[in-house]
Amino acid sequence: MDTRNFAALLRTQAERLGPAAAVRFKRDGRWQDVSWQQYRADALACAAALVDVGVRPGDRVAVLAENRVEWLLADMGILTAAAVNVPPHTPLSAAQVHFQFADAGVRWAFVSTAQQLDKVRQVRRDLPMLEGVVVFDAANAGDDALPWEEFLRRGRQALGRVQDELTRREAALGPDSLATIMYTSGTTGQPKGVMLTHGNLISNAAACIDVEPILPDDLNLAWLPLSHIYGRLVDYYERLVAGAPLCLAESPETVVANLAEVKPTHLSCVPRFYEKLLAAVGSPDPAVTAERLRGVFGPQLRFLGSGGAPLPLAIEQTLRAAGLPIYPGYGLTESAPVLTFNKKGRYKSGTVGVAIPGVEVRIAPDGEILARGPNIMPGYWNNPAATAEAIRDGWLYTGDIGSLDADGFLTITGRKKELLVLSNGQKVVPSFVEGLIVADECVDQAVVHGEGRNYLTALIVPHWDNVRRALREEGTPVGGESEEALVRHPAVRALLRRRLDLRLADAAGYEQVKDFIVLPRPFTVAADELTVSLKLRRGIVIAKYRAELDALYRK
Are residues 254 and 342 in the same domain? Predict the structure, then answer.
């Protein structure tokens, strides 16, 4: 293998593995394979077409698409052409897409569907640098968008003319060459463009494989969005480096069904997936919960990964009690992303593991986690001030608070900027309290509030099916009443009050939630309340419910 850059990596893997399956995906009701040879040929055609339309080394090309095989081919085509992939998240609005395209200076864009194409059409007149658009779904093409297959045909026809140029570009790509600009979803403020190089990404994938080797019979089901660094690295690039097949789930909504069809040995998820799964299959009887969980994942599962956000300890313990090895890890977009993770034979519950090879982690005097290594970004695109704040003397200042034990295991205790300071000076880590609360089967989501106040309050989103069942078992059936009506039902509030008190029984006095607001609907990405990786945008949520929360303190 040649791991100098992704163009060389894909070329040598195709030469080595040839007809073996590289990608498996489901379309028109059946699973299909793309061989390594075909993967390379299509990516090369895409790269040739990009060169033919005038894309130069270092130019930015966007991929605005849900997970699909064309995403992978376009990504490899962009990187083979020595261009830079800018992948906005598909839930973004047209205005948010415009910000990223304009900030990065995107020259060409690949989009998936009519919905994504419409976003670009809405803002295209304000994007003078955008020269062309390619749409994966041919039915949505028009005068302003080329069909994907036509673009590939152009590349195949141009390949003879541009092959020498592509060869030169591959030779010129080194570890420091820019591969992608990934805009942080931003829990606060405008997103920043994280620059990641070929060396950042390939070294991180190789280090992860070094810690947890990918075995010949391993099969990974990928469903995390490829526009987010977690799924892109641990699902996609790790398999590319290892020469192992990648299986794409149809969508986030079909993951459980696809698990039964594909029977993967490994699945990477964010904590929100496990929270929703446990809410759906959980039972008052732990043995029943364990049996249901094993039924979802199947006997062939080797381990589960968790990243992107802190995994509540109660969820980790429930999965492990069911015989499902789960290994939480930790990282950031700025670190490409993996810094630490647990693994079989070196695991501590409640931690995010130890640093991967080549990465150093230390704790600053104020508790902030610092990291350095070959995976750390060179900086933020067009933002030297933010770069200087994030990277000092070669160390990435993560903004997270944590501790290292004597064995090198890292524990995350919260976000530096999200630490709540009560009026009595007590400091509260909101994610810790929220983790205790959402461990209850009747609670779907929770947001703790109390900055500058003398006690905590919270926003509670119930798991309504479980609330109805619990009330029915207590002899207080609520029938077909809507969630909007149930938020005001005295029995609902009484049930949640008892459960919160039980969950917080061992927490400190200042960590108790004195009052709360019940919400009818979960927080969503579409409402700008969650990032695409399902992290809470705490400031936005608190601002949205500021009046109601203030009213709790006046009570």
Answer: yes
